[in-house]
Amino acid sequence: MREFAFQPTARIDQAVQAHASDAGAAFIAGGTTLIDLVKLDVMRPARLVDVSRLPLDDVERLDDGRLRIGATVTNTDLAHHPLVTEHYPLLSQALLSGASTQLRNMATTAGNVMQRTRCPYFRDVAAACNKRQRGSGCDALHGINRMHAVLGVSEHCIATHPSDMCVAMAALGATLTLEGPNGTREMAFGDFHRLPADRPDLEHELEEGELITHVTLDTPVEGAGSHYLKLRERASYEFALASAGAVVAVKDGTIDEARLALGGVGTKPWRAVEAEKALRDQPAETATFERAAEVAMRGAIPREHNAFKIPLARQAIARALSRAVAASVNR
Amino acid sequence: MMEHSETRSQGSGETTVNLTVNGEPCQLTLPPNVVLLDALRDRLGLTGTKKGCDHGQCGACTVHIDGQAVNSCLRLAVMCEGRHITTVEGLASDVGLHPVQQAFLEHDAYQCGFCTPGQMMSAAALLEDSRIADDDAAVREAMSGNLCRCGAYKNILSAIQDARRHVSPQRTEGESP
């Protein structure tokens, strides 16, 4: 592993300052993505700013009913937190479907938001990758692209966003709190990750020195049921080929409110806004779910090896919706 | 925070870190880019913890940090200031083998043995974690981060379920280890 400077920090402002004053700095908390990629020489930080001991490990319910999650809460602790299992079971399900026990024990909430793609061309410094090296090309476009994205892709990048947690957050609705050299700001979760377009190297909206300090989930949808369905090549410890996170509230057999987000098929955590519209005020039945699935995957662009993901995702969506309805409180 | 501020950082030079390994306090001076796995094996001579993939994919390097199973190949040693590390060498006590070790022996839960230390560390942690259900499916899921290329999974599962009789869950929701 190449050398880097290491800087422990005890306060948020100290961490922000340390990052802002060194263009080669990266924050480290769980390290499960970062250290892996430093070993591969894909990430080359000159300085690691350790934020793992900042006082950001609380999960608390705010007065307005939202849930505020500290940046360093581990995936394990978040998945099992009583406020999450009771009010946001979708998030708990998604978290527990990701990675392994050991990785979930290490990985943090903000770190998971910042998780990098598993695209093998991104992870291989001998391959062309616009995300790793601006303007170098994309070997995935005509390569082995079985695992790659079909939604939100560009001619410059088709790398899949790998996170399960982020799919749940996209569906539930959340706000990120960012602390930077110029103060604090908030950003809707859906605005944080960028589409690759012609700059796949720019993955998010963080500015130099900015640190994610909290993720605040929207108030739970009243009476809603939810389900996270993850389809993958082995039953555990595997990334999604396609996943769907659904939150549905039903009133007198009609869908009152619906949230839908997809994983494994998009270049960012994919909120299926049009599909949500196709669900609202419709009868809570299979035909509706299938129509929404059709809408959600409209505009998908397959490559040589990943066309199978489109019907697979449709099936995941329809089934996740039907299970979410089954779990809802019928009013 | 005090303990952490004592970690001395000198650019990319050597850093001194104090930690407890298998109950013994120890001090290491090492560059920031040394992972806990290499510190344990190369600096402390604790070679029971194995290096398999070195990328958090196989689980051979699993140790406990403050009671939690982690991949020691992905944790920088300098981030372990003040932490309590348990390796497979620290699993047994004066009384004898840890119930998981005894059960692995009785159930022949290995073949080549390379993944065994990691398997046992994950097993020991899951048996003490009340958040993990005790049925076979839950155990398989909790153990999925430990690969066994010999395919001794069947006996590993039966060993863990047998060891359960001798271990009572200690950690409950929201409680620090």
From TrEMBL, chain A:
Q: Which residues form the FAD-binding PCMH-type domain?
A: 1-222
Q: In Gene Ontology terms, what is one molecular function of this protein?
A: oxidoreductase activity
Q: Which PROSITE patterns match?
A: FAD_PCMH
User: Pfam families under this entry?
Assistant: CO_deh_flav_C, FAD_binding_5
Query: What are the UniProt keywords, alphabetically?
Result: FAD, Flavoprotein
| Name of the featured protein | Xanthine dehydrogenase YagS FAD-binding subunit
- Native source organism of the sequence: Modicisalibacter muralis
Top-level taxonomy:
Bacteria, Pseudomonadati, Pseudomonadota, Gammaproteobacteria, Oceanospirillales
UniProtKB/TrEMBL annotation, chain B:
- What InterPro entries does the record point to? 2Fe-2S-bd, 2Fe-2S-bd_dom_sf, 2Fe-2S_ferredoxin-like_sf, 2Fe-2S_ferredoxin-type, 2Fe2S_fd_BS, Aldehyde_Oxdr_Iron-Sulfur, Beta-grasp_dom_sf
Q: Which domain of life is it from?
A: Bacteria
The UniProt record lists the 2Fe-2S ferredoxin-type domain at: 15-91
**Alphabetic keyword roster:** 2Fe-2S, Iron, Iron-sulfur, Metal-binding, Oxidoreductase
Q: Which GO terms describe its molecular function?
A: 2 iron, 2 sulfur cluster binding; metal ion binding; oxidoreductase activity, acting on the aldehyde or oxo group of donors
- SUPFAM superfamilies under this entry? 2Fe-2S ferredoxin-like, CO dehydrogenase ISP C-domain like
Q: Which CDD domains match?
A: fer2
Pfam families to which the protein is assigned, alphabetical: Fer2, Fer2_2
PANTHER family, per this entry? OXIDOREDUCTASE WITH IRON-SULFUR SUBUNIT (PTHR45331:SF2), OXIDOREDUCTASE, IRON-SULPHUR BINDING SUBUNIT-RELATED-RELATED (PTHR45331)
| UniProt name for this protein | Xanthine dehydrogenase YagT iron-sulfur-binding subunit
Source species, please? Modicisalibacter muralis
